[in-house]
Amino acid sequence: MTAVSTDRAGKDYNGRTVLDAVSIAVPEGRCVALIGHNGAGKTTLMKIILGLIRPSRGRVEVLGQDPATAGVDFRAKLGFLPENVAFHDQMTGAETLRFFARLKKVDTREAAELLDRVGLARAADQKVKTYSKGMRQRLGLAQALLGRPKLLLLDEPTTGLDPVLRTEFFEIIRGLTEAGTTVILSSHILTELEARTDLAAIMRDGRLVAFGDLESLRQEAGLPVTVRARGDAVELSKKLNGAFHKTLPRNSAYIDLDCPVDRKMELLRALADCGDLCTDVDVRLPTLDDLYLHYSGRAISSGTGREDAV
Amino acid sequence: MSPILVLAEKEFRDGLRNKWVAGATLLLAALAFALTFLGSSPAGLVEAKPLAVTVVSISSLTIFLIPLIALLIGYDAIVGESERGCLLLMLTYPVSRGQIMLGKFLGHATILTVATLVGYGAAGLAAAMTGNADAESWRAFSALLGSSVLLGLAFLALAYLACSLPSAARQPVLPLAYGSSSLSSTTSRLWACSSQAKAALARMSSPRSCSSIPPMRIAYSISPRLRTYARSPAWADWLPARISVRPFF
């Protein structure tokens, strides 16, 4: 079942188009990463899905309802972590979470458990104004998880988290998606999303330039595999003799060779034939960063409706 | 528990924590005490009841101070929260916008009521204890307390209304609301209450004792511009008919 679907959704602010014809369909229980530069329309799309703003054009359906007109029951099924989350400085962490739990009609014992889960149990009785950025972010995550939401929207959830917490964070997310929660999160840090999200939606200037799972996006982009061969760079490049596109670094200790995915083995065999000239080989597959740069840099002429990729 | 009460309780607790309650109470009490004990000199040698003098002085204070406090609290509640980003998160919770407004209003109304009752009440009690107060001045004093609270609530509501406008329209509204404070109908109610007390004063002492300066005259002496503003009939045209515009000279 589709948890979130938008059909050519668009939004104008004072005559300026910030979101244009975005069509996505997110199946239930999947984790989607919204990727895009600042001002690409990620937050606007989230606000439309939350029902905080109405789209100027197009149709949006979230959990079977139109979020702009859905009532209180609909919002009980949502969890949201805004970018730069703010709380009342004078309240303690525990009080803040209890307040949100009561507002969501959730047992306040769950609030205490969640504080423990995000690692704030020891700081629970400190005032929020003493919290670091990462602690606020964790408190924000805890309030978003209150009441086991069906749909979780996280705007830049990992900013301010250290690597350990980031890993824990993605573990929590995985546990939630396994239990059937749909997660939509946005991020700048692309590498951390890899292998942790099912789907990626790449946005640029308010348009959706690519949407699908990482594997199919990779295939579609046709980005080359980069092989770094260490050894005598001059001899190696002579031997390979222009069969592959190569770049020579300044220190000549290695060369980088680009080749299409389907010629990877051919290249590796050629390197193996070089004998002692090649001492080591690194194979680097195109990362999310490469994909992002590829998709965000290319001209948008072929339309944006890419929902068939799911 | 209803979300309205949850919000109201949180607002009130916030008010206690961030010293809004303490600040407003102390300010009102300090000014009321000052007016009671320093400002009662017009009573001079005549035999005016100290409580009655207090009522007259405090009603002048109320007209300028209570709307200011109410507008500040109300503005912070909506615009401050919206700028900090708290409001955005709240709106994704299963509460309606009406419930958020009502809850906040209840909380802030409690803050304002407590501050007014405690601040003025303390001054009133002190005035009553230093001299004898008759039933009539007690009546005037409780009418003053009641209408001060009502005035505060009215301006709290005005602040909410102003904050709910789009930000471009919001900016001129708050000063306008405050500027019109001395001309609103609630103010004339207060005026009536202060003149009640003055009548009580006049009855029990020589006419000279009620020469404490009427509030509007203070406003005029503060701002000549306000005076010309208040006299020109053009601006009054768009006011709702039910708000009476009576300059009090």
Could you please describe the fold and organization of this structure?
The complex is a heterodimer of chains A (310) and B (249). Chain A is an alpha/beta fold and 310 residues long. In chain A, 32% of the residues lie in helices and 28% in strands. Chain A is built from 10 helices and 13 strands. In chain A, helix 3 (93-103) crosses helix 4, helix 4 crosses helix 5 (133-145) and helix 7 packs across helix 10 (288-297). Chain A is globular. Chain A starts with a strand and ends in a 13-residue tail after the last helix. Residues 299-310 of chain A have low confidence and may be disordered. In chain B, helix 3 (50-84) runs antiparallel to helix 5, helix 5 (97-130) packs antiparallel against helix 6 (135-164) and helix 6 (135-164) runs antiparallel to helix 7 (167-179). The model of chain B is unreliable at 205-249 (pLDDT under 50). The chains are: A alpha/beta (310), B mainly alpha (249).
Helix and strand arrangement:
The complex is a heterodimer of chains A (310) and B (249).
Chain A (H helix, E strand, L loop, with lengths): L1 E12 L2 E12 L3 E6 L5 H9 L6 E6 L9 H4 L2 E4 L11 H11 L4 H10 L15 H13 L5 E5 L7 H16 L3 E6 L11 E6 L2 E7 H8 L3 E7 L1 H8 L4 E3 L6 E6 L4 H9 L5 E7 L3 H10 L13
Parallel strand pairs in A: 3-7, 3-8, 5-6, 6-7
Antiparallel strand pairs in A: 1-2, 1-4, 8-9, 10-12, 10-13, 11-12
Chain B lengths: L2 H15 L2 H18 L12 H35 L1 H6 L5 H34 L4 H30 L2 H13 L5 H20 L10 H8 L1 H8 L18
List keywords for this structure.
heterodimer, A: 310 residues, alpha/beta, 6-stranded mixed beta sheet, 4-stranded antiparallel beta sheet, 10 helices, B: 249 residues, mainly alpha
Task: Give a concise summary.
The complex is a heterodimer of chains A (310) and B (249). Chain A is an alpha/beta fold. Chain A has helices at 42-50, 72-75, 93-103, 108-117, 133-145, 163-178, 214-221, 233-240, 264-272, 288-297; strands at residues 2-13, 16-27, 31-36, 57-62, 78-81, 151-155, 182-187, 199-204, 207-213, 225-231, 245-247, 254-259, 278-284.
